[in-house]
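queue> pop job 88
queue> type: inverse folding (structure -> sequence)
queue> payload:
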């Protein structure tokens, strides 16, 4: 089963494409990975990869080509050692073409179906900005995929929060719609049903102060209904929802914490629920080298590696990171990476349920301890390390998804007891 991992942000300019390209490159060191450019209006993936593209989404939509035939491998000049031979990408058309930029429903489902057939272990989707069906329909049902935001665009942090809100409400609305099996089963509770939907309207409406978030709403519901299937269902949906994020253009623990992580966590907590499962997957530093690598159409991970480091004692965690880095990037086994203070394996790998805000600060501090020109590579190695750990230790619904779901499949996933 492939794992489909979306990269989204709600707003543009935060580094989605930069992250998606380098993340997919890193993943491909572990298993075959295909990056799909779904931001068909800007087509930025092909603009950051100096590789000739013979077929792209234009050929898929207009020329009836199979999506698997629209896959492009890196030009050998970008990857002379073949380190990234398992990386490939599907480019958006070179120029904006209205019907490919703004898919209608049937184009979108055609693409969804074809993405589900792609022969790769990892499929990374670089999504466009915005919150319409062409973003939401590619996102998972029970988690956020990877959200990217940055201390440099505070408004984008809230836009990432809005994605989470849309996903949660999409699911709740679906469950509580009047033609859902939930309604049929609890039809006798028609009054409750109307009330729940009205209250959901109030929570979703940011201009409505009565019910600031789902937690307050659940309190209200408990007071007026007592224990009920509605309450139980909402608690299940909210408490199991996983939110994963990456900080791009990271510029220091405190700055990032104050201008990105805290507003994001507060926004979710105050406007949605304090019970979402938040996971900070890591960060990517702000570095002009990243930007100029993009401009030269040779992403930072495809740049030649300069090696200049002073030997210092290794601790077990840094050794693990270093050997991952060596397997991922083909570097010789390093003898010389060191943290300033020792992170513990628990800090690096444990996905804990402790207070989400404290946990974010801890993780930020841990990651700030790498130095030198390999920092960006370490950032991606670290994030990939965490993603692999999550992919291998949690069920598919917890992070990303095995396949993109059609409305009918969503239906059966949300109501698994129903006969098909
Ligand atoms: N970590 C970084 N450090 C420096 N510049 C970055 C970094 N990430 C992205 N950029 C630059 O920021 C701009 C927006 O990045 P891009 O990946 O195109 O964002 P998006 O896909 O979200 O619109 C680009 O010019 C890119 O080169
Ligand atoms: Mg982009």
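queue> result:
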């Amino acid at each position: 089963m492939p794992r489909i991992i979306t990269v989204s942000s709600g707003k543009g300019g935060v580094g989605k494409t930069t992250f998606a390209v380098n993340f997919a490159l890193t993943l491909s060191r572990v298993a075959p990975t295909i990056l799909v450019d779904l931001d068909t209006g800007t087509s930025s993936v092909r603009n950051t990869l100096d590789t000739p593209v013979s077929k792209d989404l234009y050929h898929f939509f207009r020329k009836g080509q199979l999506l698997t035939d629209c896959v492009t491998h890196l030009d050998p000049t970008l990857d002379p050692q073949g380190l990234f031979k398992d990386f490939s990408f599907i480019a958006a058309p070179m120029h904006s073409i209205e019907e490919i930029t703004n898919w209608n429903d049937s184009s979108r489902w055609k693409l969804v179906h074809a993405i589900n057939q792609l022969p790769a272990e990892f499929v990374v989707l670089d999504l466009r900005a915005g919150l319409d069906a062409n973003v939401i329909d590619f996102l998972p049902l029970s988690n956020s995929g990877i959200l990217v935001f940055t201390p440099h665009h505070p408004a984008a942090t809230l836009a990432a929060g809005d994605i989470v809100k849309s996903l949660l409400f999409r699911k709740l609305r679906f469950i509580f719609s009047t033609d859902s099996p939930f309604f049929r089963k609890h039809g006798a509770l028609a009054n409750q049903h109307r009330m729940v939907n009205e209250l959901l309207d109030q929570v979703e409406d940011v201009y409505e102060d009565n019910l600031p978030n789902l937690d307050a709403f659940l309190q209200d519901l408990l007071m007026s209904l007592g224990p009920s299937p509605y309450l139980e269902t909402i608690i299940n949906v909210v408490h199991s929802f996983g939110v994963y994020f990456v900080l791009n253009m990271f510029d220091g623990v405190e700055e990032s914490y104050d201008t990105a992580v805290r507003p994001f966590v507060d926004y979710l907590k105050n406007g949605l629920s304090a019970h979402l499962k938040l996971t900070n997957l890591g960060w990517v530093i702000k570095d002009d080298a990243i930007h100029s690598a993009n401009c030269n159409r040779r992403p930072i991970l495809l740049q030649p590696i300069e090696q200049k480091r002073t030997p210092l004692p290794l601790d077990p965690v840094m050794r693990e990171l270093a050997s991952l880095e060596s397997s991922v990037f083909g570097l010789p086994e390093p003898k010389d990476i060191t943290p300033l203070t020792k992170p513990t394996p628990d800090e690096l790998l444990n996905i804990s349920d402790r207070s989400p805000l404290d946990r974010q600060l801890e993780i930020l501090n841990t990651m700030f301890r790498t130095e030198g020109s390999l920092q960006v590579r370490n950032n991606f190695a670290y994030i990939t390390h965490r993603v692999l750990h999550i992919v291998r230790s949690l069920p598919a619904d917890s992070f990303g998804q095995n396949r993109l779901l059609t409305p009918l499949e969503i239906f059966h996933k949300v109501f698994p007891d129903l006969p098909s």
